[in-house]
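Pipeline run #58 for the internal structure catalog. This entry was flagged by the ingest filter as a single-chain record with no existing model, so it goes straight to prediction. Upstream metadata was stripped on purpose; only the residue string is passed forward. Reviewer on rotation: M.T. Logging verbosity set to normal.
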Amino acid sequence: MESHKDGHLYNQDKRRNLSKGKAISSSSTLSFTSQLSSLINSSGSSSKSSSGRTKPKKEDIFATHNRNSAKRAKRDLEPDTSSTFEQKHTTDGESLDKGVWERSKRKMEEKARLYAAMKRGDVEDADERYTVDFDAKWAEGRATDKESDSDDDGADDDDQEEVEYVDEFGRTRKGTKIDALRAKQQQRRAEEGPGILPAAPSHVIRGDAIQHEAFDLDEPRAAQMAELANKRDKSLTPPPDEHFDGKKEVRTKGTGFFQFSADAEERKRQMENLENERAETERRRKERESKMAERRAQIEARRQEVQQKNAKRKADEFLEELGGQMGATKDNTQLTKPPTDERVVSATPPGMIDRIEIAISKEEKDDDG
């Protein structure tokens, strides 16, 4: 939907609604016919008179400046006394004058409507104010490129032009300008002579000869080499054996840490003592293990003996109960019998085995201590 603000850009007349028009009378038809014939005659005469008129020539966009560009450039050079468009750095967020913002906003809206109308093709550019002749612009660019290429070709042709010159032997020859310049330089070099050329070395070896002190260095370089030799590392190669020194480290040592001596002999004696201590420790450990194995064997034998006695006692108790059920007489005779050794052993309390094992473990601890 088009805005009512773009009406002055489109130049469109409002359409008339003829659906509800009135009936046309015969008198109005005759007047319309006469008026139409007069218009046709006037248009024919005007077309004949305007046929000889020439159209105005289109202005070159590169020859003419933009409208009011001179005024804008002059305004830029003038000092800006007003602070309307001065850039302000504030922290309170103050904006510019409301009138300035409204004017800028209105101009931008007009430009936007104009661009939109130009994009739709609704703007009639009769005076070709908004058009650009890109074909002419491209043609002028090509002409400029050709002129630059022709200038380069002309410079190359000048270098390749044949001229006459005299060479170093006095002969007149023909060649390019570069050849003539080269011959002139050679002639000047010959006139100057060998005075400015570097002299040949006097100590050049020619023929068969024996070189003596070919690599003899001069005094400054020899001094530098001697200084480097003095700065050389004179430590032993390979370096001597260096053992770990716990005193150089600040850390907590373990329980079994042992600091060896830096002296080789003392260090060797300390190592031998440690080996002897280790051998003695292993010997005592084996003896203790053998004693503990013997104790375990004894405990196991006594445990088996106690288990056998308990089993026998339980069997006897079972038989006694069975005999009591069979007859009271046998039960009375069983009670009057004197106690035997087996009865005494069977009466041993069940916690006796645990007490024996505790006593054996105490003896082992005493042996270890």
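catalog note: Confidence is low (pLDDT under 50) at residues 340-348.
catalog note: The beta strands are 162-166, 172-176.
status: ready for reviewer M.T.
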